[in-house]
Amino acid sequence: MHTHSLDRWTHEHAFLGGRHLENERKTWLVVLLTAAMMVVEIIGGTIYGSMALLADGWHMSTHAGALAISAFAYRYARSHAHDPRFSFGTGKLGELAGYTSALILAMIALQIGYESGVRLLNPVAIGFDEAIAIAVVGLGVNLASAWLLRDDHEHGHTHHHSGGDHPHHDHDHQHHHDHNMRSAYLHVLADALTSVLAIVALLAGKFYGLDWMDPLMGVVGALVIAHWSIVLLRSSGAILLDAVPGAGLEGEIKRRLEVGTDRICDLHLWRVGPGHTAVIASVVSDEPMQPGHYKDRLKGLNGLSHVTIEVHACANR
Questions:
Q1: Which of 113, 160, 182, 243 ranks highest by number of CB atoms within 10 Å?
Q2: Are 31 and 61 contacting, i.e. CB atoms less than 8 angstroms apart?
Q3: How confident is the model at residue 162 (pLDDT cuts 50, 70, 90)?
């Protein structure tokens, strides 16, 4: 057999999201915005003696680091998308980055919770006017960053649901999410939340003398960020562990393959990248057909990017 005759049977294993490069550029821009705001808060906190601003500036540095992880993950996945060392491509690198960022979010929640608890017990003097001004600017930067990242987070799964009338369309769409982008989005939301809570607390302290509102809002923010972290850990961790991406798609594959005497004796279904699912199925039949026949039955299923079928003749036929 000539080598060139294998071309029609070979295929790439590049399972990147459809908006990978666009998301990479957005993430780098948000890294720059976050890092710039971090510097402003640290310098402002030092000049005006505000521990609140200093703490927020330094915790913002961890967000900037986590966002940089997301950006580097995009770049590495893109530059190594065709590297043969990765059997199923680099599409899941974003899940690894998302999981790592979720751990950082959890640590940020613990840090904010601890600092807030300390300040409840030992209140510190706050320069309200300067702190409020910088917190408002910080909120503006966070909202701009959230606006940049919003499309993929809210609508990233929609382009995988076009066409067809199969019942699997509404299967667990979180498996179509780019969890790397989602983690970046949550880091920006966490910053925006802490800015909003800080502004509310600082206004309450300035006009009503409720200085204890500042650390109390810190505790509230820590609890919300911890919740986001847990949700992201679960969703990205499930994909890293090759969890089945929704019972709807699995059921539709079984419905299409189990025709007549054909029965599935082994089925593996997992996500290899944003919007890309791989399947390995073993079919046993009284009247076995070529693997290509069974692959044709699965045509039209959105998101199935890598299909492997093995066929066995029933021993009792």
A1: 182
A2: no
A3: very low
Q: pLDDT higher for 289 or 195?
A: 289
Better-predicted residue by pLDDT, 6 or 200:
200
Phi first, then psi, for residue 207 (nearest 5°) are: -95, -20
Whole-Å CA distances, 316 to 118, 260, 284, 291, 309: 73, 16, 11, 21, 21
3-state secondary structure of 305: strand
Bridge partners (DSSP) listed for residue 273 = 276
Sheet (strand 304-313) strand order: 263-273, 276-285, 304-313
Gyration radius (Cα) of the chain, Å: 25
DSSP codes, 243-281:
--S-HHHHHHHHHHH--TT-EEEEEEEEEEETTEEEEEE
Tokens 């690894």 correspond to what residue?
A: 96
Contact 83, 161 (CB under 8 A): no
Strand partners, 284: 263, 312
Question: Which pTM was predicted?
Answer: 0.75
Beta-bridge partners for 282: 266, 310
Average pLDDT over residues 167-189: 65
Please give the Cα distance from 303 to 286 (Å, whole number).
30
Check residue 298 and give its pLDDT: 93
C-alpha 156/C-alpha 173 separation (Å) is: 9
Domains recognised in the chain with CATH numbers:
3-240 (1.20.1510.10), 247-313 (3.30.70.1350)
Residue 91 CA, chain-centre distance (Å), reads 12
H helix intervals, the chain:
20-48, 51-79, 93-121, 128-155, 179-208, 213-240, 247-257, 291-297
Using the predicted structure, report yes or no on whether residue 63 has a pLDDT greater than 90.
no
